[in-house]
Design a protein that fits this description.
By secondary structure, the protein is mostly beta strands. Helices cover 2% and strands 43% of the residues.
Amino acid sequence: MNACLIKSYTAGAAIAAGRFVKHGAADNAAIQATDASVPILGISEQIAVDSGGMVDAIKVGLAYLELGGSVTRGNILIPDASGKGIAATVVAGTEQHAGAIAEVSGSSGDIIPVQVIAGQVIATDTGIATADITITTGQLLALNATPKTLIAAPGSGYAVILVDAQLMLDYATTAYAGIAAGEDLEIRYTDGSGQLVATIETTGLLDATADAYRHIYPVAVAAITPVDNAALVMRLASGEVITGDSPLKVRVRYRTVALAL
């Protein structure tokens, strides 16, 4: 049995079925949510309502929510510009108001069951996030042609800022070969031709015959221009290495910042 708390509100504008709703311009009025910047009232029932009609908002319990992007079961969900559910990401210095937790995985346009958590603040983080990534042997052998994503793009209006990175070659049995001058590992924005963020010499690292370690900071320049909504990727600057069989483990410490101040 699903015990729900449902409250009726006057719709301050048209509200679609299965959308996040927020406070309207008057008491006991609701409108469709457009982002995660304000508290969420709940999720509209599976009936569309015109402006001035009565909308039932599920405030506690299980509800059905339309998705605005791909989500994985267990994701905390926030509204997109149309009140649909999208997976929340922690953004440094930005308070976000969550509305639900996904019960199952789904894609944009799907209507899925969710646990309503209206009114929950999920992020005021101003600290440093950490991500651990393993670049497999197969990925290393094709790293010039196919850069490896380290940190996903954070969304429009935000940029990923590299703090530092640790690398460990987890040596197996055979060293990588074919390493020539200029074949450095690079961290860039977006893809293999994006803005350079950091460089790592491969000689003594990828061709090592035992576990090898490196620690790097961003390139020493006056300033790095952060790129809006861009991933951080790792690639080999030129050519491809050959023959090796050891994975490269990368630990990235980074911040996600709003570009507008």
